[in-house]
Amino acid sequence: MTQYGMAIDLNRCFGCQTCASACKVANNLPKGLSYNVVFTKTDDDYRNPGVAVAKGALANDNAGGTFPDCTLSFFPKACQHCAKPACVAICPTGASTKDEDGIISIDYGTCIGCGSCIQACPYDVRTLLEEESEYYLDLAIGEADAPPHRIATVEKCTFCKNLVGRDDVPACMQLCPARARHWGDLDDPESAPNKAKEGREVLRYLESEGTEPCVFYLM
Q1: Residue of 173, 142, 143, 146 whose CA lies nearest to 78
Q2: Are the CB atoms for 23 and 202 separated by under 8 Å?
Q3: DSSP secondary structure code for residue 51 in this structure
Q4: How much is the CA Rg of the chain, to the nearest whole Å?
Q5: Is residue 203 within a helix (H) or strand (E), and if so which, with residue range?
Q6: How far apart are CA 214 and CA 144, in angstroms?
Q7: Residue 10's domain is classified under what CATH number?
Q8: Total count of domains within the chain
Q9: Are 117 and 109 in contact, with CB atoms under 8 Å apart?
Q10: Is the N end or the C end of the chain the one with fewer CB atoms within 10 Å?
Q11: Weakly modelled stretches of the chain, pLDDT under 50
């Protein structure tokens, strides 16, 4: 069994938002919906970000501190594709699943939009589409097999499962100019994320929740 995951180097990320834009285009996301968000962070406390991250406390536009001792860094956040996902455990219809490749997926035909998974997920990365989507363009852009966007269903990052199925990598990693992202099979000791973690301090976001997130932040 494969367990896909990602390592994100926080020392290399400079907040350009290219990963967020690539994700939005590749998945043909409507207005108001983002799978991947890069927060501006105004302190250096990555070890203990806690629930403050999920509540948007990092979504500031300015550096922290007092000039000239200012701090400005960035924290990309999307679905953590947990090894022990709370969303899967609580879903009453089985719409949220952990696939054989370790990717957490949603069956849009089975999802009833109850929001249980949104409440169970500690990362605040799921969105319930409650009304008809509005798009920036009159035509669909991005990948032809991007996931659909249906009213009364929950959506989130898919790790670009459609691209991975074609032996490609997630869109957020394809275009990262800083090469801050490393993608691969966490069960393979020679995979890119495992090699990137060697000798580095590693943060697993909200690890205390017991979900065993498969996105690792390199400090």
Answers
A1: 173
A2: no
A3: G
A4: 17
A5: strand 202-203
A6: 27
A7: 3.30.70.20
A8: 1
A9: no
A10: N
A11: 48-59
The reported pTM is 0.89
Tell me the two tokens of residue 107. Answer: 């069956």
Residues 6+ apart with CB under 8 A from 184: 4, 5, 191, 192, 193, 194
Q: Please tell me the distance from the alpha carbon of residue 74 to that of residue 44, in angstroms, as a whole number.
A: 10
Interior/surface letters 56-76, b for 16+ CB within 10 angstroms, e for the rest: eebeeeebeeeeeeeebbbbb
Contact 36, 171 (CB under 8 A): no
DSSP state of 30: P
Residue 110 token pair? 């089975």
C-alpha dihedral over 164, 116, 212, 206, to 10 degrees?
110
**What are the pLDDT digits (tens) for 82-100?**
999 999 999 999 999 999 9
Measure the CA angle with vertex 120, ends 156 and 49; round to 5°: 80
Domain of residue 71: give its range. Answer: 4-218
